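Colleagues,

Please find the record for the two-part complex below.
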Amino acid sequence: QKEVEQNSGPLSVPEGAIASLNCTYSDRGSQSFFWYRQYSGKSPELIMFIYSNGDKEDGRFTAQLNKASQYVSLLIRDSQPSDSATYLCAVINTGGFKTIFGAGTRLFVKA
Amino acid sequence: KAGVTQTPRYLIKTRGQQVTLSCSPISGHRSVSWYQQTPGQGLQFLFEYFSETQRNKGNFPGRFSGRQFSNSRSEMNVSTLELGDSALYLCASSSGTSGAGDTQYFGPGTRLTVL
């Protein structure tokens, strides 16, 4: 079992729709969870992080964390073609000094 | 505040050669992590340095090594290059002091091509 798993996609949604990206992790002691966006040929950029169970909203983005289910998700409301990218889920392990990335989900937003 | 910088941005080497990549973290950040990114494997963790000490290491052969200087700048070295080492090498910096609460910020990467 991979430490951080994501559906590789591609996930295709129409412009204006909600895109839902999911991630599961295996280390039950993990405390910090991050979502990064990576455009083709570019380096990852941080979208948001979440530490506590529940939802965290930032503009059109909402991160959801369920530690009991070891599940974290990212919702993108009113998706735009400019949101088309690979989204990486990242988890800091129990020891605290290692960030583990999922393989990423490719998102396409159709105009 | 200036971001993470990496040099060089592009490198072309031949098999058997060695290469050194450099990373300057965000001012005030003391932790530097290195990743290898390939289309097939995604982001693979190489190692993490904090205050000149390697705190964590990924599952890469000994040909991959790194170090960190007192000003937090870091270098990674790959010796005896193989074709499979062709990848985007990313450096990420963070404060390194808050453990589970530490956010990483990535540099633009160095694209290494091994011929």
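The first strand of chain B starts at residue 5 and ends at 7.

Comments are welcome before we finalize the supplementary table.
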